[in-house]
Amino acid sequence: MKVGLIGFGKTGKAVASAILKHHDFELEWVLRKSPKQEDRLIADILEIDCNNQGRVYSLHNHKIEPFLDAHPVDIIIDFSSESGIFTYGKAAAQRKIKIISAVSHYDHEQEAYLKRLGEYTTVFWSPNITLGVNYLIFAAKVLKSIAPFVDIEIVEEHFKHKDGVSGTAIKIAEALGLKKSKINSVRAGGIVGKHQVIFGFKYQTIRLIHESISREAFGNGVIFVAENIIEKEKGFYQYEDIFKPFLSDKI
Amino acid sequence: MKVGLIGFGKTGKAVASAILKHHDFELEWVLRKSPKQEDRLIADILEIDCNNQGRVYSLHNHKIEPFLDAHPVDIIIDFSSESGIFTYGKAAAQRKIKIISAVSHYDHEQEAYLKRLGEYTTVFWSPNITLGVNYLIFAAKVLKSIAPFVDIEIVEEHFKHKDGVSGTAIKIAEALGLKKSKINSVRAGGIVGKHQVIFGFKYQTIRLIHESISREAFGNGVIFVAENIIEKEKGFYQYEDIFKPFLSDKI
Amino acid sequence: MKVGLIGFGKTGKAVASAILKHHDFELEWVLRKSPKQEDRLIADILEIDCNNQGRVYSLHNHKIEPFLDAHPVDIIIDFSSESGIFTYGKAAAQRKIKIISAVSHYDHEQEAYLKRLGEYTTVFWSPNITLGVNYLIFAAKVLKSIAPFVDIEIVEEHFKHKDGVSGTAIKIAEALGLKKSKINSVRAGGIVGKHQVIFGFKYQTIRLIHESISREAFGNGVIFVAENIIEKEKGFYQYEDIFKPFLSDKI
Amino acid sequence: MKVGLIGFGKTGKAVASAILKHHDFELEWVLRKSPKQEDRLIADILEIDCNNQGRVYSLHNHKIEPFLDAHPVDIIIDFSSESGIFTYGKAAAQRKIKIISAVSHYDHEQEAYLKRLGEYTTVFWSPNITLGVNYLIFAAKVLKSIAPFVDIEIVEEHFKHKDGVSGTAIKIAEALGLKKSKINSVRAGGIVGKHQVIFGFKYQTIRLIHESISREAFGNGVIFVAENIIEKEKGFYQYEDIFKPFLSDKI
Lengths: 251, 251, 251, 251
Hints:
Chain A is of the alpha/beta class and 251 residues long.
């Protein structure tokens, strides 16, 4: 599978690294705003020992349509920013290139645009593309739906200097219809990231816990999504659309 | 809903107590092997202040067929032993009384008999009837099916004098296709019961944890099952059959 | 050791029950405000099968000085209320009866009175007399003193209807010089009581966790304290005074 | 404080990196067996931007006595192997250079040699030099000594491919007089390292948990030890000797 990556920040790099190490994927290029590191081999920048010949390109020096024609891919992975989709979305959809966006937030208009692109190609969006966090949300929604009366609270823990409430915790709360006041935020030392959903029944307690070990989890999330949408028809997909078939088929 | 209870051990009593406190259920009788406490009001024995007039009867002094005719119920709940089902099963099925069995173990023959009864009435069986443990197993199976490559281990903790590996932990391991060696058993002090399933990914960890607070959780489990099978047609059901509709309908 | 108990609420009863079951202690009497259950055998009220002949008496019908002379004890355990100490304190001190108070709060004047009594007899006070919570506070203070720069947060979890922040969590915070905002309170279902102190270092995290299983922990706390102060000279003692000798002697 | 480092494996590098970043320490040199990277600046190898001029030297090309005279230090930190101490120990002791050894295991003879060196200079040894693990052991011993009757179990979790039982868990078990069978080992995914000591009382449970975030914790452990032994007289010290003054002075 030929893959192009939009965005090359910290997480973008971790994702590129995960893709380079995976045999089923060929990272054709990274496309970024800044002209930094232009034309360098991605594998060299990331100090990964492999034969990959993909290079870094800048939107500064390339127009998207001829670029996509010159460097064809099956999937575009977007770790850029909210507005990134407008640079490449239409051109990609016209070429039936599948789109996986891991941008952490879109406004209504942007999300609507994503859905329109889904009329032409396969479009997937997850604001936190790790398998673990999405499973946590899914499993929590299942339990909430089975036991709508249960008390639910969220405890999230992160490193001392993380500002504000964790975006992922807010996503979990929204998915469960909880007020923000049900989120407890712990900030201490170098905790990478821990999200706990506590379900309090009268005579038993259930806890769903996700602990991040490192940023590379995003890379593996992208790979999981790519493998699961590659056969999907055009349309707009989210993580639940990937999870559901596992339920009916296999359990 | 009129309910009869077979078995009146520690857990049977906790279940009776939960049913007595619940407005939608009327506990008509307890039927037990031993003639102890025969004819006493259940509510008196359990020191619960309510108008319930259900009494304790013994199989010693009653034949099951005339007993069921004299004391009709909608559901029989079975907290007795493996062989209990043979005393009342056929008589109940003939009268279309639904059966909920919470007996912790049946051999193949006994389970086959249960399934045959399911050709005549609604039969439900769960070896651990708490909502929490069954949800844990269900959610763990979902994750295993989504990520079959993930490493899984189980840690179960119980009070010092609990003998052998927890039956629930063995159930979880079987459901996930794990060897028994993946179960770690901690025995310390008065821990009521804790089951943790650890899913180790390379860059993230997911934990599903169930903590028991008290035996009354079994009572609430019975009530949850009763509410969810009362409308079900004849057939043999397990917890997953109750959970699945929640997935398709509501998520 | 002959013991008298002041106060017979829920926790007082759990404590009486623990003492009745312990071979080294003889529960001579319970003294309470209300004349309820007066003159009944304590063992009968608590449905404990033992030879103890201690009975319930009411301050309504007894004056403290003649009462203590008629029913001599070595230790008085106080689970009553803030003002309880004024009813029996002076009379007990004059008779060299040791005092263990587990009253959860005293104002400055009351605490000063306790300390004055310590000039005449052995007086011990702990607002939460369980061994576990006091060890938690002690161990947390040790770590804070070793690593004063570490980030500390507290997470306490209790049953849904517990009002306000846990008093124990406030005690922990005070002992560590933390602001109240560092306490995160989770309220869900029937959680008996869990206190977690999280120490966040840059590259490691330490957690000290105390989980309550039941109210009987107070009884065992009283027994632990009684065994450890019985040889102590007159003076005012707290839990740390009991812990410290263990450090120098044995480690 | 001038520091020399013996050993330059993965952990040695993490320690060098922590020292380079700390203002109170000057890393004068790294001394290693292999002649790899000889004469290169340590800061360059570790890609740390600082003015430090310390270089890597090899025992291959240097004799220890003239080397220590030519490159004097206050403290030697040893992250090499069991036999490392014999290369530099005597020469260091003669020059009153303090020694901090973080070698994970010594046999009896080697430990005896360390103690003999303590007759001439300040010698410190800890097989796991992180503050957190040593505090865990210390706090666990305190609780065991307060409550010798308590049930204790250990749960340690590490990445899938870690062989054998964690050495740290074995140390904890030895310190508490526990059999190895009380250690439960979980191996899953990429868990960096978690050690939990569970104290089970009849009515309460206490858990002491240490979670590693990264190898840099060893560097901070070395710095903590160095700061606390620099004023100590000659002698053989372990972590408890550092912890104890904190107890008596400050609590």
